Amino acid sequence: MQRVPRVGDSTRQERTDYVSGRFPCIGDCDLCGNCATFHGREPLLAFADYLSGEAEFDEVLARYRRAR
Length: 68
Description:
By secondary structure, the chain is mainly α. It is 54% helix and 0% strand. The longest helix has 11 residues, at 12-22.
C-alpha cells in the first residue's frame, strides 16, 4: 500500500487519490462497511479536513476510532 501523503508534502489531488484508493466505493454498502465506519458519511466527506490540508490523515482517522 502507498504511504499516506503528508499535508505539507502533497497536493489536494494526491490526498484525494489516496483516500479514494484506500476506501473505494464498491457499490454494495452491506458488504463494504466504509460508510458505516465513518458514521454514514462517504470517505471523501469524512476526510474533508485532511483533503483541505487542515489535519493529517491519522488525526482524522483517530476521530472516528474514538467515536465508536
